[in-house]
TrEMBL record:
Subcellular location: Periplasm
Organism in which the protein naturally occurs: Litchfieldia luteola
High-level lineage: Bacteria, Bacillati, Bacillota, Bacilli, Bacillales
Name the record gives this protein: ABC transporter substrate-binding protein
Pfam families recorded: NMT1_2 (PF13379)
Coiled coil, from the record: none
Record keywords: Signal
Length: 327
């Protein structure tokens, strides 16, 4: 009887061990905003790539770079999806637990120049003397905006009236209500304005500014050190999604992520995905290279927003992405 009891106990232990090995791990992700610009992230969620890795990703939209970084620094989130410039700001303040960029999602600026009137033969010098409704001072969109203006021979503080005191969430409505001759907008708002006849896309800041680590996944060094397997799985799921976006049609991508943009028509999502993909905005792998890092700091420096030049190796870890790609 004793041996039967031991045998039954052994049989009960086996499924408990198996269940423990199959345990799903939760990762809390804070995204800086909700945007079609981040399509591969939503594909990873909707196509089950995180689930395949045994991960439960809890996604929260924190609406702003400062709030997103605060969530990570205060342990309110494990991973942030935000512009790499935020990690530089934190490091320049003397952080003892640096926030490390480990997987890149977008590699160009995601904004477009929208004019109030249709302009068939647009040239950048047409902005001279105009009123330009730009993005929030210190943020990556604003810095790229000024960089592109200067690149095209325009002094943003002397050649036009530059408005930068409108909150990110209210920029589109401010333009719609009559503020500005030109505005710098993300999608899908730029395309929606075109459809409604409220504005017309005349140029892409992403094409003009070149490759930068515009939006990356980052986490505190302590989190990366203590959760190596989970971070590997997370990066693997993102890489699968990046490849999926490149090998499927814009319509298929739009259908995959539509549940994250319920108020946006499927046709508009498809158009935006196609526009971002055609200009190379979606990174095709998670590696943030040094040339992009240097370009980012040059743009920040040009805008007078670079607190200190930080070495690539200090805030960028490519070993995780490289390992995943080589598998």
């Amino acid at each position: 009887m004793r041996y039967v009891s031991l045998f039954l106990t052994f049989l009960l232990i086996i499924p408990l061990v198996a269940c423990n090995n199959d345990k799903t791990e939760t990762i809390r992700v804070a995204e800086v905003t909700r945007s079609i610009f981040y399509a591969p992230q939503y594909v990873a969620l909707s196509e089950g790539f995180f689930e395949e890795e045994g991960l439960n990703v809890e996604l929260t939209t924190t609406w702003g770079g400062d709030k997103t970084m605060t969530a990570v620094l205060s342990d309110g989130a494990d991973i942030a999806l935000v512009g790499s410039e935020t990690s530089i700001y934190v490091q320049a303040q003397g952080s003892s637990d640096p926030v490390i960029n480990f997987a890149q999602l977008t590699q160009t600026d995601g904004t477009f120049l929208v004019a109030r009137e249709k302009m068939e033969d647009f040239s950048w010098d047409q902005l001279k003397g105009s009123t330009f409704l730009g993005q929030r001072k210190g943020g990556m969109p604003q810095m790229v905006g000024e960089f592109v203006l200067k690149k095209n021979g325009i002094d943003p503080h002397n050649d036009l009236e530059l408005i930068q005191n409108v909150d990110f969430a209210n920029i589109a409505s401010a333009f719609a209500s009559g503020t500005g001759d030109f505005v710098q907008l993300f999608e899908p708002q730029a395309s929606i304005f075109e459809q409604e006849g409220k504005g017309f896309i005349v140029a892409s800041f992403g094409k003009e500014s070149g490759h930068v680590p515009y939006t990356t996944f980052m986490a505190k060094q302590s989190y990366l050190d203590g959760n190596k397997e989970a971070v590997d799985k997370f990066t693997r799921a993102i890489y699968k999604a990046q490849q999926w976006v490149q090998t499927h049609s814009a319509k298929e991508v739009a259908e995959s992520i539509q549940s994250y943009f319920e108020d946006t028509p499927l046709e508009t999502i498809e158009m935006v995905v196609d526009r971002y993909r055609s200009q190379g905005s979606y990174a095709t792998d998670p590696i943030l290279d040094e040339e992009e890092w240097d370009n980012l700091q040059n743009i920040m420096d040009e805008a007078g927003e670079l607190p200190a030049r930080i070495e690539y190796s200090t805030l960028v870890n490519t070993s995780i992405a490289e390992k995943i790609i080589s598998e």
